[in-house]
Amino acid sequence: MPFLGLQRQLGIDLDSWLLRQSAAQPHGKAGACHAFEREWVECGHGLGQTRARRECQPEYEDFMECMHRTKLAARLKKILDQRDKMIKEGKYTPPDYQKSQEEPRP
Length: 106
Description:
Layout: H1 6-10, H2 15-18, H3 34-44, H4 49-55, H5 57-68, H6 70-89
Helix pairs in contact: 3-5
Region (Disordered): 84-106
Main location: mitochondrion
Protein name: NADH dehydrogenase [ubiquinone] iron-sulfur protein 5
């Protein structure tokens, strides 16, 4: 987010303050969604808010999916619902190690 090269002249980096994944991370490694956030910011840089919302929608959706995992959770729910449906119909029996039975305590 350069503003007439002011960041470089003053020797500060506002991007690390403004970007969620650019903040200091443990062990000096980049955040898990850093690449997606960077793509989204680079796409929208210089376009203006209205145009960036329209043109950078895929990058934004990728970033939000990486952060919140909503599509992954919905897919997992469908898979588990299908498994439960198949168990009710008798078409599938889970292996012994998947059955949620507690082990007897001594």
